[in-house]
Design brief:
333 residues; Rossmann fold; L-2-Hydroxyisocaproate Dehydrogenase, Chain A, domain 2; three-stranded antiparallel β-sheet; cytoplasm; L-lactate dehydrogenase (NAD+) activity
Length: 333
Amino acid sequence: MYFESLGSASEASASSSTHKTSKVSIVGAGAVGSTMAYAALMRGSARTVALYDINASKVQAEVLDLSHGIQFMPMANVLGSDDVEVCRDSDVIMVTAGAKQKPGQSRIDLAEATINLVKTILPPLLEVAPNATYVMVTNPVDVVTYAALKITGLPRHQLFGSGTVLDSSRLRYVLARELGVAVQNVHAYMAGEHGDSEIPLWSSATIGGVPLLDWPGINGRGPLTEAQREAIANEVITSAYSIIEGKGATNYAVALAGSRIIEALLKDENRVLPVSTLVDNYFSITDVCLSIPTVVGGRGAAEQLRVPLSNAEYDGLKSSAQKLKEVARQFGY
């Protein structure tokens, strides 16, 4: 079944005759996928947003609900179907379908079921959208991304994972809260696994251009101690577990992070985002997908930036990579 709602059929026809419009397809109409569609529509990320899910009634309901609010959003077309054809000729495909993480369950525990699902859904998607940029969002995103590259044979710039874009946003939020500054003035990254072994890159973090490790403190709040930094890192790493325990899933922030990636791709922004990409001799780390600051634009995931690393950060990144390799090998990748 195929469900469609045009923001304006006449406008869509006129628009398509004069210039190429952008199309984003979101695979999976669960909590993350449907919220990502909502976020992309609200932000005007793409002219067409399509939802694909094997549950036809769920897709129909989501399309109707989103469509009823079109007049309050930037003009867009909303599509939905349980037929992969709805994804045809997409510019970007966000894969959110996967096993649901349960309270207390690590992302790595989800690997086997999600990889098996990816084996099923990716080949048909490639048939209808061979030139799309594929962004894996489903967890464990690093292992799934690595497996997806092997399954599809796509180059690393065309298929990558959402990585620690969300985790880095969490880090910036907590830092802003603790330091008493606007979150927009905090620049800091989480790197490595999108999960328990991820690490904060304190050496490259800045607050309004001031290196975090040199931050003097303002408004009676002193510089961060090592103990405070460790507590902040732990809060970031465990925050998803707290959210899942309380409401069953994380969806708002990850959807906003996903829409940010979509915009970087479609608008060719060359924005630096810590997405999960296949690395080859990144500080001697190779043949694994993990998150590092990467230039994301019209070419997909392009240059991987070699940010300053302390010895401890290098060791942490290498340890995270080794953990991910071991999990991937368990499943034959």
